[in-house]
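Dear colleagues,

As part of the handover before I leave the project, I'm documenting each prediction I ran so the next person doesn't have to rerun anything. This entry is a single chain, and its sequence is reproduced below.
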Amino acid sequence: MDTLKMTIKKILVANRSEIAIRVFRAANELGLGTVAVFAAEDKLALHRFKADEAYMIGKGLGPVEAYLQIDEYIRIARKSGADAIHPGYGLLSESPEFVASVEFADMWTSALAFCHKRFEGKQVNYRNEKSGGLGCFTPDSFPVFDVFRQNCYIIADSNHGYKMLGVGELVAREVLGESARLLEPFRISRYALGQLHPVSRSPFPWS
């Protein structure tokens, strides 16, 4: 199967201090360009000088609120040419709005309602429950791991929960352009081929 490889050449780290520095270090080892952001109060912070580029964000908002401005990260990503944004730990990584925008929530719940009558009128659950409030499964209740479009990787499954944690490294490698043999049976194309209920012989419990 032909798989569209995602190309990441430069990464913006939406965090500060030691957390950002650790991501920069890993990115440097992978040959990726790095972009730092800093609040006005952090203009002399070490992480600013550890990246290839650095930009101030959230002018006048204070040392915490400045790092919570999603629009600012999008602006800097476009300005710097960053292909990806790494949220780090804490701060923006804990914001549901960063993971899924309001537009995405509307699109997702509308699509579910169109496909399955049982999801009609459930949009309020998505907004009011932190978990999203909507449990949907793949057609064969097995996960999907695949590149959907350039810079868009799909991990589709809500049936196996914590069991999926073991594939994080494999997914990360595929995001960087490698192909993971253990994930091959879980591509979207299996539905067109009629190859449901895949078995990968992997060490992970979801197969």
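The first strand starts at residue 10 and ends at 13. The radius of gyration is 19 Å.

All the best with the project,
I.
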